[in-house]
Structure formats: C-alpha cells, structure tokens
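Chain A, query sequence.
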Amino acid sequence: MAFSVEDKLKIAAKLDYLGVSYIEGGWPGSNPKDLEFFQRVRALGLQRARVAAFGSTRRPSTSVRQDGNLQALLEAGTEVVTIFGKAWDFHVLRALETTLEENLAMIRDTVAYLKDLGLEVVFDAEHFFDGYRHNPDYALRVLGEASEAGADWLVLCDTNGGTLPWELEQMVSEVQREYDVPLGIHAHNDGACGVANSLAAVRLGARQVHGTINGYGERCGNADLTAVIPNLELKMKRRCLPEGHLVRLTEVSHYVSEVANMPRHNNQPFVGYGAFAHKGGVHVSALLKDSLTYEHINPEAVGNRRRVLVSELSGLSNLLYKARELNLDINAYDAETRKVIKQIKELENQGFQFEGADASLELLLRRAFGQYRDFFQLENLKILIEKQETGGIGAEAVIKLRVNDETVHTAAEGDGPVNALDNALRKALTEFYPFISDMHLTDYKVRVLDGAEGTAAKVRVLIESADQKETWSTVGVSENIIEASWQALVDSLNYMLMKRSLQQS
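Chain A, predicted structure.
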C-alpha cells in the first residue's frame, strides 16, 4: 500500500472530520513525499487533530544537532513529534549494534533536545513488551530516561504483535506503578489481539491509543480504530471523539478503503457491510420483535445500517421485514406472499444470490406484488464478435427495444460483448431517459457455479452500479454468460429508472 501526497491529505482531512486527536503524518527524514505532506497539510485548516511527525532517536555516536533525521523532523514544522527508541536489549545489541548505555543516552538526548525546542514529545518504546519479558529492568530504564528528559507521553509498543492481553495487563500495571507520565498503547495485530490489547491498556489507565482506520499496517496490520473507537465509547464509556461524531465512523472507514484501493471486508466489526446483516428466518423473526435479540449495538450509532437478507434460509419474517423496508403493502398470511418465498428459494437453488443483489430482489418483490412497471421491453438483440487483424477481438451489439410504445433500433460497439451490450442499451434509452448518463458500472463479477460442466457451466454475474447518490447491485444467472450479463444489466437500469420514477411521483 502506497499513498500519494494527495491521498494522505484527503485521509488527514477525513480523520479530522471524524474527530481524532492526533494524526501521525509520516517520517519526513525518510522520503521527500512525507516532507511535502507536512508542508501542505497546514493549508487544510484542521479543526481538531494535531499533526505529528514521526522519527527515531539520534543515531549512535552522533549529536542531536548533527543527526540528519532529527533535523528533517524539525523541518516538518509540527508542534508534536513522535520519537521511537529501542526498549528491548536484544534489539539494541543486534539491530543498532551499540551499547545499552548508549541507547539510553540516545533516548535522553533526543527527548530533551526536542522538549527544549518547545515541542510535544510522544515517546514510542519500541518492542517494549518483548523487552520487558527478556529484561524488565532495562525496559523500565528506557521509559525512565524518556520520562526524566521530559516526554509528554510514554507509549508502550507491541511492535511484533505477539503479546496476549493478560500478559499485557501485567506489564502495563507495572509501568503504571512506576511513572506518572500519561501512557499510550501501540499494538500490532500479528496475534489477532491488536484491538483487545488496546482496550486492555485503556482499562488499566492508558490515555492514548495508536491505530489505523481498518487496521491497515505492516504484516497483519495495526489495531483497527474502527473497532477500538466504538468499543471505547459504547462499551467502556470512554469519550474519544467529539459528541455526535461516532456516527461518521462507517463513512470514514469506507472512504479510506476507497482511497487505499482496498476491498471492504463485509465481516469487519461495526463498519462492515455484513456487520448487522441477518439471514436466518428465526433471527429475523426475533428482530421484528426487538432488534436487541441479535444485535450488540444499534447499527446507526456507528453510521451503519441493519440489513435483512432474503435467501434459501429465509422464512416469512425475512420477506415481511424486507417489504416493510420498501414500504410494500403485503399481507403476512396471503398465499401470494408464500408463493414469492417459494419462488425466491427456487431461484437461489438455480444459482441466484439475492443477499448480494438487493436491487434485483427489490425489483422481484415489486413485480410480485404489482407495484412495478417495465420501462422498456426487448424485441430483438444480436451480438457480433469479430477477430481483428490487429489481434484484438471487437464486438458490436444490435438492439431493438420498445419504449413508451415506440420502437428504437440501434447499434453500438464495445471492447467485448458485455461492453457493447451496455453501450447499445444506453444509446437506445438515453433519448427517453437522459439521466441514465449519471449511472456507471463500478464492478462486474462472474462466478462459475458448476465447474464440472467446463465451458458449458452455469455462471452467476453480479453487477454493481452507482450514480451520484447511491450504489446498487444486481444479479443474473445462466449457462450463457451474455444472457446472465443481460439479466443483471437490465435489472441495474430498471432499478435506477424505478427509483427516479418514485422520486418524481
């Protein structure tokens, strides 16, 4: 993962919007990009967050004024600096290749130098927990040197990410007894304990938590702030964002994943698309009575929403819940309602998957209960594939549609058959529905459902589309990939046209 300066500035602005206290912007001594970030971040006018520059203690046998990394740190021009120093004697001897006493002097000299310049100093005790296991006296001496030199924060780092919560609790308690300086926790997730260790440290008195949105970071990542923050606020009653800002959490999580060009994880706690999704009929039946039956918090508290899925595991309760969501007037005991449930289960047996295609499901329900009209009908479709002299394969779609009692006959080329089909559909419909130009395809997935059939296998096509306001997903299934794509494309267009029609009525 590599962010451009523009990316980092966008994320910094979004973190400030969320309401975090500190943003560590990078290591200005390591590359020109990070130095540029610090020069440009001042123009953002951040409302709450304080920007911190990151760096190491001075090098062995070098004065603070002659250390290039420290001077670059000062060039960043921040009021807060984060300095890391070795707290594990093994690292001092093997990685730094210096003496234990020189390492202590490096910490003391660096912190004192920065404090003399009037800066807020966050001292990261790197490898503290591993160091404490092997040589507790020396690990505590490292904290002592930073504290006596004036550090504003002592941050205990589980740099290798292998400490278990009960081990961490014992060590943090010992530090609490020794020092009055405010403590912080910096946990990595190599043992899947990054969030748990962060919460345990706060419970024992730590007042600063280091982490990243969505847990991005080296190896297995850092403590995921999208889990740390709501646990602190909702479960532990520790305020860490401004009043009312917790509802922005899901939005910020999704924004950062988009800037990072990383997929969103559906099962991510609190902010994942599936964090409050319910599928089993028994669960949904209870949810209809009280949401607390199967949810540990109100999803709206973190800016997420409840999703009830309709699938082969669904019962009548799922359909009733979905109908309520869509303001559909249906009778719980009507034979037609039970017929729709049976139809959905039969379609899922054929390979359709409505839990990942809410738009197709809504269209199906509206058709079943007579609350939908088709916006166009297909009369004829022909797709031509041509192997070109240049080596590429071109495609042309010729389509005839019936729209508002008028016949439209047109053709369009594309990079492939699906692209040509999409272009022809849009070309035919734009004359009647100009706002179709607002819509674009954001994702296209093909899944082979029965691989044993080889190239004759049935496939499922999932299409994600978006306009300026929302995103929606549709599905198609067939032994013919063009037919499956057609089903999903048509649903995608019809869904947008239906939404616009409902907004105008």
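The longest strand covers residues 377-387. Residues 277-348 form one domain.
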